Amino acid sequence: MIEDILKYNKEFVEKKAYEPYLTSKYPDKKLAILTCMDTRLTELLPAALGIKNGDAKIIKNAGGVITHPYGSVMRSLLVGILELGVEEIMVIGHTDCGVQGMDGHHMLEELVERGVSQEHINVIKSTGTDLEKWLGGFESVEQSVKDTVYALKHHPLMPAGIKITGFIMDSVTGGLEAIEEKK
Predict the structure, then answer these.
(1) Which of 141, 85, 136, 91 is closest to 110 using CA atoms?
(2) Do 45 and 169 contact (CB within 8 A), yes or no?
(3) Closest to 180 in 3D by CA, of 171, 163, 167
(4) What does the angle CA 147 – CA 128 – CA 68 come to, to the nearest 5 degrees?
(5) Which of 81, 87, 115, 137 sits at 20 to 30 Å (Cα–Cα) from 56?
């Protein structure tokens, strides 16, 4: 598969097919979106929001969540705000998310079945890392979005004045439902 992608990429560059996508590193809409890596959202999310190349910083991970308060998601959002002019953040979960109901214990068992040694797992656990929680999912997409919005709004490094809102996207139609803030 990677060889096919590399072949396509070479032709893409040779034909200058990149020209319609030229833009700056600064998001035109001063917007960052934290969302899920779900394949159904790859083209649906920008299309449903009217977002084109250059409009927004889009940060994707499994579930569209913050797994660590000083991890890569928070760092990316702060870079977007402090260096690239982001003024608003949308947290967008989606229906039928694969992370919903994920079992961290089962994920650890799966890692062992795929050749990760129990010894390595035990070493990581001995550092105080709760691997089951880290690998686990959430029970409710709505609650996950509320929790993420709350974490962002109350993060000690979040600058004042940044608008942060939460939504759930229908992964079939692209429809958005606003999620009320967690109190």
Answers:
(1) 136
(2) yes
(3) 167
(4) 30
(5) 137
Contact status, residue 169 vs residue 106, Cβ threshold 8 Å: no
Antiparallel, parallel or unpaired: β 56-61 and 163-169: unpaired
Measured between alpha carbons, how far is residue 177 from residues 9, 59, 141 in Å? 37, 20, 12
> Beta 176-179 vs 163-169: how paired, if at all?
antiparallel
Q: Is 56 exposed, middle or buried (0-12, 13-18, 19+ CB in 10 A)?
A: buried
Kindly report whether the global pTM for this prediction surpasses the value 0.90. Answer: yes
Q: What are phi and psi of 140, to 5 degrees?
A: -135, 125
Instruction: Kindly state the tokens that stand for 50.
Output: 């009217």
DSSP 57: E
For the chain, what's the residue count? 183
| Residue position matching structure tokens 């940044």 | 162
Which candidate, 74, 174, 102, 96, places its Cα nearest to that of 141? 96
